[in-house]
Amino acid sequence: MNKYLEEVLKNTRQKNINESEYLQAVEEVLSSIEPVISEHPEFEKLSLLERMVEPERVIMFRVPWIDDNGRIVVNRGYRIQFSSLIGPYKGGLRFDPSVNLSIMKFLGFEQIFKNALTGLPIGGAKGGSDFNPKGKSDNEIMRFCQSFMTELYRHIGQDVDVPAGDIGVGAREIGYLFGQYKRIKNAYEGGVLTGKGLEYGGSLVRKEATGYGLIYFMREMLKENDNRTLEGKRVTISGAGNVAIYAAEKALQCGAKVYAMSDSNGCIYDEEGINLDTIKKIKEEQRGRIIEYQKYHPKSKYFEHEPGSESPIWKIKTDIALPCATQNELTLESAKHLVENGVVAVGEGANMPCTEEATNYLLKNGVLVAPAKAANAGGVATSAIEMSQNSMRYYMTFEEVDRKLDNIMVNIFNSCKQSANQYNLGNNYVAGANIAAFSKLAKAMVAQGIV
Ligand code: NDP
């Protein structure tokens, strides 16, 4: 590795010693931008990488709230305002007990690159809390969201920082957060949060955008490689949340067949093809567990997922694997199973779902990999379209937004392809995505001076 890169990596490791997810994300980017760094010795003089790996601002705060038994509970809130180089900070909020500083920083760091790839004017951020929404009543969720926003509101704004949803934060939570923001500010600033309900400033297609975008990217990647299509392909999708459900919906619309989906307790395999209406009923309406699928489709099989072990879903034979649940869910062991079973492509719907070893193994074995930064950027891109609509006070039709999303995903794929071609990296779109995003950010950083 180039000496400058090595030095930055060493210092980053020392400074963020216990932050394994953050270091993993930084290492992935730095290890793939070597050809660009070698071409631009001036970047070192400008300490460009040192600036890129240090968040502009890290906010950590107390979130006290009262549960249904009258007990005062204290959670920790975060907002990492990583980079405002190319637009207001932008990135989702995650409510999950696993949330910690390292996970927030990895997500914020990746978000900078992802947002740059969309071609839209949005910087990078991430936030959330170690609050666990599972099993909480609607009133508890509301009280938590109100308390969270009572601190967060002073750090955000439609031209400053625009949060959205992520794991554990969907339309219900965004509604409560928006209501509290509006109440404190005494102003309707629609563009301060995205993923809003359609009744009060949300955009059509936002709900579907990440999943649909993933499949649009996959379609382009398959087309580019031997003119393949999704038609008739076997697809397995981990997770059964927002990203997974709408990736499944679009995959089905493209003629693929989805055989398996999962949640953190286990996975469902249905030889007749997963019935997505049943999944939506269980997950979106009832907030239930995926095991309940068997009640409606007794011929399906359920495989339990032991915590901390390899997910059973990756042992199922498939052409296309779409990890859409969480980080590091697809390990080297899983990658080996997928390759043994003849997988053609892996599309990262979740953020950093493949471990570094898994990604390298897949690439070495000729599997096409659609990297998260590029392939799941449809969500944030549509959030930016939501912000534009809020500013214009004008709403687009479903078809208009969907067409824009599709175009953006085609452009993102082309940027990844062009960067990979430029540096003779074949169809390594993982490196292509990192290089394309980094090149854009580096130009913006040089232009803006020492900030
Ligand atoms: P949701 O909360 O809607 O869904 C997450 C799903 O993943 C749930 O079904 C959850 O199951 C499941 N899950 C969590 N951990 C595991 C695990 N270890 N094994 C199997 N399943 C698991 O979140 P989203 O769909 O919004 O987000 C999913 C991923 O996509 C995250 O990485 C997120 O950062 C990323 N992403 C989301 C975007 C969006 O627009 N929402 C945009 C870009 C990226 P359970 O209910 O059991 O917890």
Give a short overview.
This protein is of the alpha/beta class. Helices cover 47% and strands 15% of the residues.
CATH class of the largest domain: Alpha Beta
Quote the beta fraction. 15-25%
β-strand number: 12
Largest sheet: 7 strands, mixed
Helix fraction? 40-55%
Radius of gyration, in angstroms, nearest whole number: 21 Å
Q: In what order do the strands lie side by side in the largest sheet? A: 9-8-7-6-10-11-12
* Bound compounds: NADPH dihydro-nicotinamide-adenine-dinucleotide phosphate
CATH superfamily of the largest domain: Leucine Dehydrogenase, chain A, domain 1
List low-confidence stretches.
Answer: none
Please name the CATH architecture of the largest domain.
3-Layer(aba) Sandwich
CATH T-level fold name of the largest domain: Rossmann fold
Helix/strand order: HHHHHEEEHEHEHHEHEEHHEEHEHEHHHH
The separation of the N and C termini measures 27 Å
Shape: globular
Q: What class would the helix/strand composition place it in?
A: alpha/beta
Structurally, the number of domains stands at 2
- Tally the helices: what do you get? 18
